[in-house]
């Protein structure tokens, strides 16, 4: 007999009809227990959630794990995207080596988990010599930490000598990229319900990849029925680059290479006009909103409300940990609320909108219907926050308090019905040792200063 666990009587839960909690069985949500009710069938264990506010596990749809090694880097702070990249590309090219990459991945995954994230997508586009097996490393580390993951096989094949932005040493040959993409898809892509690993293909951006790579990645994705991801519309500089090199704006470029469809989600998606927003929505193209990074780099403000109204799924991402500069998704929920209220108004953008982007919207961007909500039949991925800190004293609405009062760490996190964070600490990860090891290798990234 499978064990049924009643997560009983939380302070609040982000789900309809679950006032008395949730019953978990076989890694799924088996039952919602409403106000004044008891579970319909016997349970074997009870977890007393009386100290917790429960949300669906947060879903991160855009990140760059390796960038944890260059947070607040003196060469890159106080810059916008293109000069920021030009400052960091050479540093990454010299110093992102196997040990550093593995520790960067482990640290980013651990940070995400501790912030309430249960599924992550990392746009891993950097492949200097020595880390050609980056996607295999990420697979191992995701299993070690316990998160679900979309392995997002990024790529760059357009370097400075060909008119692109990155230095020659960190791009790969197109055929090498396509061959490894096919290998990763064949080895790791699991389209089944409840999958711990899925794969997406992600040529980096219009200024770092060739049209051939975009077109052939789309063909490969069609063959394997996986999703596609890229940066688009992040800055005015990117729009200008597309006009100068291709003769049209980024959304036209997307259509030209066969990417204007509902298997695609975009990072940032800021600088779209009304007509482009409408086209993206009609075709179901998702957009990952990255509020923290957008503010740090002064890139602009994503048109979340118009995109959703047009039909585009809107998700949430922390973006790279050198432009955020952390990997904290619950903090990103707060930033999404704040910047969108500034963009629109205080009444029409609520904490529930920000939570929706980080859960259901993000799940839709990744093409997953099995996560992103607390509902019967969904995977039992949940984040448990307490209101014990001084910042929450006096708070009236518990769910709003997580956002408005600035929650930054989950007390417990459940993935597929198993505890992966308990009492604020990840199970099986020595946080102090990880901090020391990661800090040691990160020192190399400052050696030229």
Automatic annotation (TrEMBL):
Signal peptide boundaries: none
Domain called Amidohydrolase-related: residue spans: 53-403
Domain of life: Bacteria
EC number(s) on file: 3.5.4.32
Gene Ontology molecular function terms on file: 8-oxoguanine deaminase activity; deaminase activity; metal ion binding
UniProt keyword annotation of Hydrolase present: yes
Entry keywords, A to Z: Hydrolase, Metal-binding, Zinc
Pfam families registered for this protein in UniProt: Amidohydro_1
Residue stretches in coiled coil: none
Entry annotated with the keyword Zinc: yes
Name of the top EC class for this enzyme: hydrolase
Similarity-based family: Belongs to the metallo-dependent hydrolases superfamily. ATZ/TRZ family.
UniProt xrefs under PANTHER family: AMIDOHYDROLASE-RELATED DOMAIN-CONTAINING PROTEIN (PTHR43794:SF11), AMINOHYDROLASE SSNA-RELATED (PTHR43794)
The name this protein goes by in its record: 8-oxoguanine deaminase
